[in-house]
Amino acid sequence: MTEAAGGGRRAYREVTPDSVETLALVLREATESRSVVQVVGGGTRQGYGSPPAPDIVLDMAGLSGIEEWDPDDLTVTVGAGTPVADLEAELAGRSQTAVLPEVPGASTVGGVVAAGMSSLRRGRLLGTRERMLEVRLVTGDGRVVRGGGRVVKNVSGYDLPRLVVGAFGSLGVITSVCLKLWPRPPAAATVSIGDLESAGRVRRPLAVLEHDGSTEVFLWGTPEEVFSSTARLEGESREGHHWPADPAGPYRWSLRIPPASTTAGVSRLPPVWSYLAIHGAGEIRAASDVPDGAEDLRGWAEGVGGSLVVVEAPKDGINGLDPWGKPPPGLEIQRRLIAQFDPARVINPGRLPGGL
Amino acid sequence: MSLVQDLRAVLGDDRVLEEPVELYLYSRDASLMHGQATYVAFPHTTAEVAAVVRVAEAHAVPIIPRGAGTGLAAGAIPVDGGIVLSTTSMNQIELDVDNRTAWVGAGVINLDLSKEAEPYGLSFAPDPSSQSACTIGGNVANNSGGAHCLAEGATTSHVLGLEVVLAGGEVLVLGGQAPDTPGLDLKGLIVGSEGTLGVVTRALVRLLPIEADVRTLLLDFEDLSGATRTVSDVIAAGVVPAALEIMDQKMTTAVENWLRAGLPCDCAAILLAEVVGEPEAVEAEAALVSSIGLENGARNVQVARDEEERAILWKGRKSAFGAVAQVSPNYYLHDTVVPRSRLVETMEEVQAIADRYGLDVYNVFHAGDGNLHPLMAFDASDPVMLDKVHRAGEEMVAACLARGGALSGEHGIGLEKRDMMRDDFTELDLDAQARLKEAFDPAGLFNPAKVLPEGSRCFDFGGVRREIPDGAWL
């Protein structure tokens, strides 16, 4: 474990635990002293929710690396602090993928899970929650807990592995996860198409992405399949997958709507916003210089049963806009669940909807 | 007012059963265990379910949610009395073709949903072998799988939203068509919770486009390891077929004697593989499966020529358990999982255990997932035999756990494997599970005595430890 002092206006302790036991000790002490703990993986999602002023900043880099990987089993167990890019590079060597975000930057596996970030391939291969087979975590009061197991199919007990996805550490600090892998087929192509309609010529593409006025269909499969699908699309084709990065800007947004409303969602974005729409999944990632227009967009999204979430915003620049919008149903049960795992509410307090 | 009067005030006389023969029927499911129902209730609406929950709470009587009763892990039996709440009358389907979703009543039969969606080119992926009888509510409760969840995932991957009745009769609608509902994913936690957190009344499910083409192949092998190696090699080649199912010689013979489908009975194992997708892909992938099979010692590769032949092959697979009825009056099967790379050694040990107890074991399993279903055929009227079956079964489960496997892949824990949870999880793990339950159902109203062993909550010194009641095994 290494420790350092940090912070500007408010001093905090920076801790990098190198074992689950040390982490448990840190959290037990935090609960006793009612200290606020901020958990940091790659630091790419610290703007989400209302980040607390921490007493302790936990750097998860000490718990990283591949723990167990048998390519034949299509499972991998990794430390939470493992960078997504490193893991995917390793898996690609045996033509496999964990179907995590394609342009992850410094994101770690634990961070992606805790923040509920998903792959651009989610329209076909679903989101990060569907990769979760096992989770190990340390609760707010320092209990070391496992849920699930290291097999691809398991219904033994409550589904804790999926519950931690998007929970922002409120049930505990994730120390390792076992993920279900997917084989990478031999052929892949990226096809630019003129209009979204023509994407319908391929029944189940890997991804259909729209950004900055252009639309691309991502294909994979046997060479025969990719060849014939490419021909049907009649667009400009490139070999391999050329994934776009998430839009960047001082304000970053996540618009979540029913899949059939994706085109309507794109047309409702303020014209100056940049965006990346995942068709078939109902997710639009966007960025802007100013927050103008967000309130109207949120009103529309909530009207169709979705949400507009603030992923990143300048400090004090959100003009009273709640990071999450309308609180989801079942807040009281969520509160009770969290109290069972983090009774003193020390890990990332207040970052979830409803100030949980 | 008495409990039955209160129930009748909510549902009317005809939707509350209390005759001994009716209670007897609803005290059982497809497992070998039974309990004792106090009453059986048939609500038609979510509001009625909420009212029944409030009545139960007022009388401190548990609620046991029940779909079609096809569960094999004794998840739907009333262990110690209680109101069996049948969801079968809640059977509405509302399709949203544009979004490829449907709101489905908990009592809708799995296959009926796919039939309803078929004219729109859509289907519901989870397909347990009992799909012509089992309900969506039951699928949600058990996070059911099926032969085709290899490529598409089990029920949880297809549930986008839930309407549930929780303690106090509170009705919540969780999740929805939009992805990533902010906050904790309560919906995902309720899937697979076996009716212990509340009563699911409706589910919003994802439907998939029916594939353009399908090819079903039957390969037969002289040894089991050739079949399992084929499974590994196919996936390593970058192809995840829609299904990869293996039956051993005994099971194949039992099915063939009953179905007369021309299955090869002189081989050690048959592999049923199905590939789906665009016609070009299907052709290429079928050729790949075939050549990998031949490289691994397949004697023959038979390709279903039409839908009729395909249907017969699948009927053989999905009726496998029933086919054993002609061999013995009873069967007991376990549902366990091992890492796929350890399938062969596990199968060998399962056989050795069966031999040691002098039992007949039949194997049919989801090979792509490493999900075993060793089935022991026997006569339950012989108590010595029954005891052997239980002890052998427990050893088989232990053998899987010892290889890094799991207690159950798709049938659930229920009452059957409740006490084995201690073999897989630590005290702290189980305590965490018990805390999840407590947050939803502090009074223990919903499906008590299931999933978690008594005393799972570490600091739970209150209750008297209740063992599985005598005579629950039958």
Question: Which labels suit this protein?
Answer:
heterodimer; A: 356 residues; alpha+beta; Alpha-Beta Plaits; eight-stranded antiparallel beta sheet; B: 474 residues; Uridine Diphospho-n-acetylenolpyruvylglucosamine Reductase, domain 2; Uridine Diphospho-n-acetylenolpyruvylglucosamine Reductase, domain 3; seven-stranded antiparallel beta sheet; five-stranded antiparallel beta sheet; 20 strands; disordered C terminus
Could you characterize the architecture of this molecule?
The complex is a heterodimer of chains A (356) and B (474). Chain A is built from nine helices and 19 strands. Chain A has helices spanning 20-33, 84-92, 109-115, 122-125, 160-163, 223-233, 262-268, 294-303, 331-341, and strands at residues 2-6, 12-16, 37-40, 56-59, 66-70, 75-79, 96-97, 132-138, 144-148, 173-180, 182-183, 187-193, 207-211, 214-221, 236-239, 251-256, 274-279, 283-288, 307-312. An eight-stranded antiparallel β-sheet of chain A has the order 15-12-14-13-17-18-16-19. Chain B is an alpha+beta fold and 474 residues long. Chain B has five domains: 3-86, Uridine Diphospho-n-acetylenolpyruvylglucosamine Reductase, domain 2 (2-Layer Sandwich); 93-209, 2-Layer Sandwich (Uridine Diphospho-n-acetylenolpyruvylglucosamine Reductase, domain 3), CATH 3.30.465; 213-321, 2-Layer Sandwich (Alpha-Beta Plaits), CATH 3.30.70.2190; 328-402, Alpha-Beta Plaits (2-Layer Sandwich), CATH 3.30.70.2740; 418-460. Chain B contains 16 helices and 20 strands. Chain B has helices at 3-11, 20-25, 46-58, 110-117, 136-142, 149-152, 186-190, 224-236, 249-259, 279-295, 307-318, 320-323, 343-357, 383-402, 421-424, 427-440, and strands at 16-17, 39-41, 63-66, 83-86, 93-96, 101-105, 122-123, 159-165, 171-175, 199-206, 208-209, 213-221, 243-248, 269-277, 298-303, 330-333, 336-337, 360-366, 371-372, 374-378. Chain B has a seven-stranded antiparallel β-sheet, with helices on both faces. At the A-B interface, strand 9, helix 5, strand 11, helix 6 and helix 9 of A face strand 9, helix 7, helix 8, helix 10 and helix 16 of B.
